[in-house]
Write a structure and sequence with these properties.
alpha+beta; globular; 10 helices
């Protein structure tokens, strides 16, 4: 009997304002891979968010899975992969990190690597270069993380946030590499101290689940939003309208161009309806924190086991 697995990875938002390259939150928007070992490589895209044409040898799932197998001295077998995604590419919703996490799990399964959760955190963050999105996709919930010089991730994991999140997704792409080009190379000491204090208060507020303060400090970033805001369609207008409609706070999702608001769950429906009326050119999605992280289900005779 040939083995088949369903790998599901949540997307994520990073930073939440001043938590630059450190804070990540998994979202209930998913990348799903159905994987079986085959006699030839085949990757089939089943969602509009995924490209229609690609070169197998350049596909992120293939290249990362092969790299992970190589790290452990294993030969990656040919696989048939069906991919579905709710994550638009280059929009600040962790699509690349989710693909990296999924590819690591693929290699783990088909090469029988027996990777630990810590291994998955380390490898995914090393590949990404920072641990925010990847840690959230691996663990679920909210993660506050750092990646040390040896490539080891240390994470504080926060679950059960009692809040809803609304993402404003424009019909434009913004790659993280491009968004980083507008950032200053350095800050003076006083500015850096204020920026760091805001990040500290955001982290403390998230751990304490103090939603009013979370919203306040989400909107206090000095590290990146002041410089990236000009790249983001309707950023100031969304920020103002969301506050007036009852959001705790609004910030860029990762490097953008998506914008994310944290809101009380009780106002979810009316908030989304109002934002859709005001910003019809954006795709506006209501989501929650995913609390499971990556999940794997073995498929037996095409039935989830």
């Amino acid at each position: 009997m040939s083995k088949k697995w369903q790998i599901t990875v949540p997307g994520s938002t990073a930073n939440l304002g001043p938590g630059f390259d450190s804070i990540g939150l998994s979202l209930s928007l998913y990348l799903e891979l159905t994987v079986s070992i085959s006699d030839k490589w085949e990757i089939i895209h089943l969602s509009d968010h995924l490209p229609k044409e690609f070169v197998l040898e350049e596909h992120l799932i293939y290249t990362i899975a092969k790299d992970v197998a190589d790290r452990y001295g294993k030969k990656l077998p040919a696989c048939r992969i069906e991919m579905k995604s709710e994550l638009p590419f280059a929009r600040g919703l962790g699509s690349s990190a989710a693909a990296i996490v999924a590819a690591i799990e693929l290699a783990n399964l088909v090469c029988e690597l027996n990777l630990t959760t810590q291994d998955k955190l380390n490898i995914s963050s090393q590949i990404e270069g920072h641990p925010d999105n990847a840690s959230a996709s691996v663990l679920g919930g909210l993660t506050i993380s750092m990646l040390d010089e040896d490539g080891v991730v240390d994470t504080i994991h926060v679950k059960d946030l009692d809040a809803a999140f609304v993402v404003f997704v424009p019909n434009v792409e913004l790659k993280t590499s491009e968004a980083r080009k507008v950032l200053p190379e350095q800050f003076d000491r006083g500015y850096a101290v204020r920026a760091s204090a805001n990040a500290n208060m955001l982290a403390a507020s998230l751990i304490n689940k103090d939603y009013e303060r979370i919203g306040r400090y989400m909107e206090s970033d000095l590290f990146h939003e002041p410089f990236r805001a000009k790249l983001i369609p309707n950023f100031d207008e969304i920020h103002k309208a969301a506050k007036e409609a009852g959001a705790y706070g609004t910030a860029l999702s990762g490097a953008g161009p998506t914008v994310i608001s944290i809101i009380p769950p009780a106002i979810s429906e009316q908030f989304v309806n109002k934002m859709k009326q005001q910003f019809p050119e954006h795709e506006i999605l209501l989501t929650r924190a995913d609390h499971q992280g990556i999940s794997v289900i073995e498929v037996v005779n095409d039935v989830l086991a």
